[in-house]
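Deliverable D5.2: sample structural annotation.
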Amino acid sequence: MFDAIADRYDLMNDALSLGQDRYWRSMVARAVGARPGETVLDLAAGTGTSSVTFTRSGARCIACDFSLGMLRAGARRQRDPGVAFVAGDALDLPFADGAFDAVTISFGLRNVADPDAALAELLRVTRPGGRLVVCEFSRLRPPALDALYGQYLTRVLPAVARLLSPSADAYRALAAGLDAGWMAGPG
């Protein structure tokens, strides 16, 4: 699914989040607090757009994703020498214990088959005293706002995706997954 939407992924994120994705990336970068000389693992990095936010401080970043299509699209576009693209699975990362000063995953934990195992793996590759930052969707309060957002996920998101993406079915599946997770209970 992600390979099919890789070339338009960043445009779609921007459109579907009404530009909020830029704000979320900046908040994650602030929480990570990458410093010059540090190495950051950006897991579920997609095209690496989020990874660049960590290199602005002088850190190096490994953009890691399981989608080769996303990594290829990012490598074609990305010219930041501080970002390297590496294929990897959140459940079995190809890195040594304690390899990173900071590790982050944004909006990817929900796509992992075993989130607890993925978190353990993220902790494994984070150096002692390092930082682990997770950014993920949660439920909204009040409940009426949460219900409205659920409608956005199931109706508006797929409609906009049909207009902008060559693979709107991928976004319909993504919306269904988000909505299922959304309705599963408090986050």
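Annotation notes: The helical segments are 2-5, 9-16, 20-32, 52-55, 68-77, 115-125, 143-164, 168-184. The domain at 17-135 is CATH 3.40.50.150 (Rossmann fold).
The annotation will be released with the project's public dataset once the embargo ends.
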